[in-house]
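Re: that chain you flagged

S.,

Sorry for the slow reply, it's been a week of failed gels. I finally had a moment to sit down with the sequence you sent. For the record, here it is as I used it:
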Amino acid sequence: FQYLKRYDQGCNLDTFCYEAHSVEGSPAECLQQFLLHCGITDPSWSELRNFTWFLNVQLRDCEASVFCNPDFVRDTLQGF
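Prediction finished late last night. Pasting the structure tokens below so you have them in one place:
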């Protein structure tokens, strides 16, 4: 949710890192973001769950990758 919210606001996601147990927004805002970004017009709960699970895994791997660390990469892979 936090990444999608910042993406919609036009924030630089290269410098953002999720902090465990941090809470932003309401459950309704969270659901609205997922519905806007999942790519399915009328998704089932299962489809929303799969979307959020996949997105979470990808973002966790991205945050853990040295190649996505702005301190390591500097500006050589801007926007990657």
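What I noticed first: The two ends are 20 Å apart (CA to CA).

Talk soon,
D.
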